[in-house]
Amino acid sequence: MADKPEPVRPPDGDKYASELRGMIDRSFLLSERHKGQHNRADRSRGHPTLLEFERVLIKRFAKLGVPMFAHCVYRDDVEQQRLYVKGLSKAKPGQSAHNYGLAVDIVHGTKAWDLTRKQWDLVGHIGKEVAASLGIKVEWGGDWSFYDPAHWELANWRDIGPRK
């Protein structure tokens, strides 16, 4: 029988408790609108390991009462170029893990990207905990100089992709 994972505890205990409370929205979590958000991302070319990480991370947040969803998994070259030109991505087409289904942007159901820095730190902590529990190596965009805290990518994506 497999051991049950330890319950999620925010980093630094009470320091993050108020941040977590600010993210909880149980009524929205159960809404049809939130259920619809889960169909937004194109997962057709998503790598199975990445999709498993996404599934478990979103489920972990749901257990905490936090409505998170995948905004983007696969992104084509046209969309990548549009985001690059707008300055919303540092990657040109073919340079992003999204172009190969090896990255996921996970955002809040009602606040989208509008979380506090401490709330994003909590997302990063929980995401890293989930990845470790699954034995998956990921990079989190919240650790980058180009701060992108919704972004998660397989750490070895350049070895896996390009698969076009």
Q: Oligomeric status of the shown chains?
A: single chain
First-to-last CA distance: 40 Å
Q: How large a portion of the residues is in β-strands, by DSSP E? A: 5-15%
The global form is globular
Strand count, sense and barrel status of the largest sheet are: 4 strands, antiparallel
| Total E-strand runs | 4
Overall mean pLDDT: 91
Nearest-angstrom radius of gyration?
16 Å
User: Spans of 5+ residues with little confidence (pLDDT < 50)?
Assistant: none
Q: How does the helix and strand content classify structurally?
A: alpha+beta
Helical content stands at 25-40%
The H/E string reads HHHHEHEHEEH
**How are the strands of the largest sheet arranged?**
1-2-4-3
What is the helix tally?
A: 7
Describe this protein with a few key phrases.
single chain; 164 residues; alpha+beta; four-stranded antiparallel β-sheet; 7 helices
